[in-house]
Amino acid sequence: MTVRALRSVVPGPGLPPDLVLGAANNNLDAARHDGRLWLAVRTAPTHYASAAARLLVLVSDDEGARWVLDHEVAMGRDVREPRLVPWRGRLLLVWFTGGTSATRLEPDRIHVAVRATGWSEPAAVSPPDCIPWRIRPVGGRLLMTLYRGAGSLFTAHPVPLTVELWASDDGLAWAPADLERPVVHEGGAEADHLELPDGRLLAVVRKEGPEGGWGSDLVVAPADDPGDWRRRASDPRKFDSPCLFLHGDEPHLIARRQVAFGGRYDLGLRGLPPSWRTKVDQLAYVLTPKRTARYRIDPDALTATWLHDLPSAGDTAFAAVVPAADGEGHLVFNYSSRLDRGWWPWVVGQLRPTHVYSAELDGASPSGGGS
User: Tens digits of per-residue pLDDT, 150-166?
Assistant: First the structure.
């Protein structure tokens, strides 16, 4: 599969000329709804939390050549992780509110707004300290993965992270999919999930450590119990910002790739106490270059095979994938620092401007790829 038709979207020539943007354009999602292409993106002064952060909802009638601003969210505090969810004739926008300090991660509540004839007022649908990752239709209802404990993640005394699986029929009233078993994974953070053609649920979970280990878990749950995440395999690579999609019947993943250390996040420093090992892993991670990469997932062997990198450098990886207009291949949106700065460590990119790009992934045979 090849990448072609790369286009700068935010900022880009197709945007309204009077649209005000920040230097950092990063967290995003895309969807097809009502015959049009939709894009939600966070724009802010920097990668880090800011009271000036806004979510822009853009819509295009011509496959992204021109965009119109349809909605804007500004709450006087950070807003992140926008999710666009077409559901029962309406379009849902889901996000979480953060804090205002660039040096702290302060997750608050998950919010939802609904577009029918117009956009509704935001409604909080979770308690504090919740970060949503993915919302998808599974078995006739919506399932959302979220995680808790992130407020202490990068502090001296982090609490264990937990991933929960919530369900909703209308996108507004949310509760754990299994009230007796709300936590589906301990130690994980960002967790994407995808219903496979045979009905099973595939999940990819990012792990910072020490609880649950370091790197990622690949999980498959039975079709009749999507909350049973006990069948899993660990990977020393950390698949940040996981985005799963089907290429034919084959599951693929787009995520952040570590360029150094053979791609590993976990450096295997078993002689250190687990908390120190985590801090060394995190420090090495932010000081080394990154790419956005595509992998093929084997849901039976629970393995991820690298296929290729997308155009990316510096601060990058928060992808969204929608079917191409002609049904052949996919249209992918992602953010990145300058594409000619491949040697930049991740932290350098976080301090510089970032743009949102789109590209086409052609419809080549799903069996190709590297190792």
Answer: 877 766 677 889 999 99
Q: What is the CATH number of the domain that holds 193?
A: 2.115.10.20
Counted domains in the chain:
1
Q: 216 and 232 in contact (C-beta within 8 Å)?
A: no
Lay out the sheet containing 250-258: strands in order across: 243-247, 250-258, 290-298, 303-309
Average pLDDT over residues 69-87: 98
Q: Which domain holds residue 253?
A: 129-309
Domain-embedded: residue 60: no
What is the rounded average pLDDT for all residues in the chain? 95
At 77, is the pLDDT very low, low, confident or very high (cuts 50, 70, 90)?
very high
Residue written as tokens 């609904």? 114
Angle at 306 between CA 302 and CA 312, to 5 degrees: 130
278 within some domain: yes
- Over the stretch 246-304, which tens digit does the pLDDT of each residue have? 999 999 999 999 999 999 999 999 999 999 999 999 999 999 999 999 999 999 999 99
Report the DSSP pairing between strands 232-235 and 24-33: unpaired
Encoded amino acid at 74, one letter: A
Reported pTM: 0.95
Is there a domain that residue 92 lies in?
no
Tell me the backbone φ, ψ of residue 51, rounded to 5 degrees: -70, -20
Is the per-residue pLDDT at 371 higher than 50?
A: no
* Closest listed residue to residue 220, CA positions, set 197, 247, 190, 248: 197
